[in-house]
Amino acid sequence: MKGMRATTNLTKTGIYIVCIFLSVLSIFPFWVMFMNATRSTFEIQQNSIGLVPSKFLLSNWEILQGKTFDPIVGFVNSMLVSTGATLCAVYFSSLTAYALVAYSWKLRQPFFTFIMAVMMIPTQVSGIGFYQFMYRIGWTNSLWPLIIPATATPAMVFFMRQYLMASLSLDIVDSARIDGSREFHTFNRIILPIMKPAMATQAIFTFVFNWNRLFEPLILLTDGDKYTMPIMVSLLRGDIYKTEYGAVYLGLSMTVLPLFIVYFALSKHIIAGVALGALKE
Amino acid sequence: MKRNMRIVVSLLLICCMSLSLFAGGQAEGATKPARKVINLWSFTDEVPKMLEKYKELNPDFDYEINTTIIATTDGAYQPALDQALASSGENAPDIYCAESAFVLKYTQGDAAYFAAPYKDLGIDVDAKLKEADIAQYTVDIGTNPNGDLVGLGYQATGGAFIYRRSIAKDVWGTDDPAVITSKVGPGWDKFFKAAEDLKKKGYGIISGDGDIWHAIEGSSEKGWIVDGKLYIDPDREAFLDIAKMLIDKGYHNDTRDWTDAWFADMKDAGDKQIFGFFGPAWLINYVMAGNSGGTKPGEGTYGDWAVCEPPVGFFWGGTWVLANNNSPVKDAVGDIIEWITLDSSNTGLQYYWANGTLNGPGGTKDTVASGTVMRKSDGTLDFLGGQDMFDVFVPAGKFATGKNKTQYDETINMYWRDQVREYSYGKKSRSQAIADFKQQVADNLAIDVD
Amino acid sequence: MRKNNISYAKYGYLFSIPFVLAFLIFNLYPTIYTVIIGFTDLRGLGRTTFKFLEDPFENYKSILNNATFIRSLQTTFIIWIFNFIPQVLLALLLTAWFTNRRLKVKAQGLFKVLIYMPNIITAATIAILFNSLTGYPKGPLNDLLMKLGILDAPMNFHLQSGTARGVVSFIQFWMWYGHSMIILIAGVLGINPTLFEAAEVDGATPTQIFFKITLPRLKTILLYVLVTGLIGGIQMFDIPRLFLWGGPDNATLTSSVFIYNQAFAGSYLYNRASAASMIVFIIILVLSGILFYSMRDRAEIKLKKTERNRLKEEKRMGAVR
């Protein structure tokens, strides 16, 4: 017994060493980013990896303030887009996945195959089609084209389907029916709680993805009142001849902070033991 | 159940909102009287700031300026601008800016048909060009295939050779720009003779091969495309040998432009001390001054620099201003464009720009397209040890040519420099590098190579 | 029971409506656009009119004869293999550690957050960062290697195809292993805890538990990780484009960057870009088909079989009625 504990401790030490190493690797870019936010453009050009803070945080902040856009507006817009898209994606993907797992319908397999196929088409060309379409129907300078399409997120449907197939027992659906629960109600009250870890996981990914999304918003949003945070950071990079790198890093640092909060808030839900008895054996 | 209702209601709400958005978008386009709005598209806040000044100078000007700024660095400016131009309508750009890397597309290339000739904007082009003495290369680039002028810049980006005074004194006993001009040029033979002199004293003449490339590219007789086919100008082909020689003989620090090591050479932080850089005035203002390791003479390399004529003429960068053919407010657009590009008076944009007084005194002095303006402006810089840079940059604008550019340059230059590196580092034979370059151009751009 | 199943089928359609609607409105046009224009003469900026080619596969032939494209496929594959295998293995290892009920790794929550962190910075920032890190002739990596005595002279990492590809693979690996790990952990959490408890009571070692209980039950989620990893890997775009623009000598030019260049590098060859997209699509389709087949779940097969029988039954019943 003692010997076993010793090996366990040894393994644990090894695990901590590996985890700490990986953590350092992860912290490193953030450290550089935060440090560079306090350095001047020319300090950064001379040595773009800075590990110690300098004294230009305030002047970088002033450059950021001196631009024609309002960071608060950007923050609000980014929040609207990311939250909206995340809610749409998570809820409707779960619903679609539930349809794929819980019911047997004729087009079920073809529909799933179709969803998978959509995911596999490279996006470079379809992007052109999307912008053309949005410009043609005049749906630019609106946040909706960045939110509503998230309702159809094939990758997430795929994930939710896989998750449900592994953890959902159809028996609980049946017992809910016996209790007289309507189908939509069953989904909302019984199935969604089971999917909480999966939803939290995917919510994090979608939120991060939408928060950082740059190219589509850049093309679709041309009005300053609709700019998102990444667009504003991208404006700081203006043209290559005269980039305010210090302010760019400050902008990037500010962009990344809300993501930590969202991550911490959501990761609390990635826990085991929800609706214990209701899980597949 | 209540919760269900809430979800259903919010779903309905979303649907209604999106429908109303659709409807709103359409209604707006249909009804609206003659607008007093000018849509401006740009990739920096330079031109938008100019328009603020214009409104300040012309209180009667009652148009609202609606500015869209999209950075070029993320590759979205052109796609967005293209969509906006093509879809026309209410929010279509009236004035738009194009950078030298892609301006040809909008003046002579695929998107040229959007650009309005300046004469249709009510500008007396020929007289104004003469009066302002605009650098010819900017006119060449801004002229469409029909021979009409559709775009001009405000900045002149003719290049000079920017060198270290102390090193010049050490090697040749003088830092006089006239003498150094005759040491480093004209022509590359003299330049490399100078490189040999510098090497004997342990200096590198330039930082990396990228520095010299801008000069070679800008001075070659013909561009990459001749009669619809790929053409490798002998001057550009010679870059292969030059790049290899620079490495073999150790004439530089082997840096790549815009990397840390390149910036470091501006304040002597590299392996060897570097004698000079090729560049226009903006390189001095925006890049070198800040990277010199000081802010006043005596600190770092600040004040130890001077400019002289380069061995070959070239230009690098610049912004051109264009107007949309379909703009409903052409007269107002014409007034603005004339003020920015062709007004050589003391209240014209270029006078403020050259003297650094656009946003009050003490701003950055820069070279401008109008020779007339530069001749009456003061271009002395502490960074250049009190030298008046306009003495060199006015003729530099004349040497530059705009006739060797194509809309593919950005891409083709990248492929060429990639293959030149393959050869100069000895990874490929010369003929293989050229063959691979042709393959790249053919495969990626569908341009005839033989 | 059977009656129930038949009457509930309509909910399958009903619950898919939002997805289908959003797809039809926003993605149908772009998707069709991608498929169709590969058979047309559409190239050049701002053009909207096009005609179908006499030889519908002209663009396909030209792309398949394009040496740069063929090489980009190989490049994509090499970079993908070198980032994906270590990525999945490390993610599995970390999942095993963090879900090991006996080890009870401390500060787990913190580690999970930290390990996922590389995924929340934008690709552009990461690419710039690594470009500077591997800079030449002076750069932090070169300085470090020279200080440690591993290198005598600075090494130009951006010039060797091996090191350039290595860096791209590493970035991809490092950005995504935390992502895979979180998915796998969520998958493990979906497994009924009583199974682990029972195994522990039976005296199974953590290793046994992982291989005998966790892994088999993780299969469906693992399939997700593998398939999305495959799709994401073959469509790898941002990092290769932003790190060295596909260089040196096309060593990091992936097929997606190639497609992008076809469409945007200057000649606006939309038709050829579309043809190349479809070829890549078919490759992904085949490879994921293989994955699906080799990872097919017995339970799923059984489910399908019963479903098929049920449908048959239904038909028979309908015919009887």
From TrEMBL, chain A:
Keywords noted in UniProt: Cell membrane, Membrane, Transmembrane, Transmembrane helix, Transport
Source organism (scientific name): Sphaerochaeta halotolerans
SUPFAM superfamilies linked: MetI-like
Protein name stated in the entry: sn-glycerol-3-phosphate transport system permease protein UgpE
UniProt keyword Transmembrane present: yes
Keyword Transmembrane helix on entry: yes
Membrane association type: Multi-pass membrane protein
GO biological process: transmembrane transport
Localization annotation: Cell membrane
Lineage: Bacteria, Pseudomonadati, Spirochaetota, Spirochaetia, Spirochaetales
Signal peptide: none
Residues annotated as transmembrane: 14-34, 79-103, 110-131, 143-160, 246-266
GO cellular component: plasma membrane
TrEMBL record, chain B:
Claim: rRNA processing is one of the keywords in the record: no
Domain of life: Bacteria
SUPFAM superfamilies: Periplasmic binding protein-like II
Signal peptide bounds: 1-23
Gene3D superfamilies linked: Periplasmic binding protein-like II
Annotated TM spans: none
Keyword Acyltransferase applies: no
Keywords annotated in UniProt: Signal
Listed name of the protein: Carbohydrate ABC transporter substrate-binding protein
UniProt source species: Sphaerochaeta halotolerans
Lineage: Bacteria, Pseudomonadati, Spirochaetota, Spirochaetia, Spirochaetales
Automatic annotation (TrEMBL), chain C:
Listed GO biological process terms: transmembrane transport
Pfam families: BPD_transp_1
Record domain ABC transmembrane type-1: where: 69-291
Subcellular location: Cell membrane
Entry keywords, A to Z: Cell membrane, Membrane, Transmembrane, Transmembrane helix, Transport
GO cellular component, one term: plasma membrane
InterPro entries linked: ABC_transporter_permease, MetI-like, MetI-like_sf
Gene3D superfamilies named among the record's database cross-references: MetI-like
Superkingdom: Bacteria
UniProt entry tagged with the keyword Membrane: yes
Membrane topology type: Multi-pass membrane protein
Record bears the keyword Amino-acid biosynthesis: no
PANTHER family: ABC TRANSPORTER PERMEASE PROTEIN, INNER MEMBRANE ABC TRANSPORTER PERMEASE PROTEIN YCJO
Family statement: Belongs to the binding-protein-dependent transport system permease family.
Protein name: Sugar ABC transporter permease
Source organism (scientific name): Sphaerochaeta halotolerans
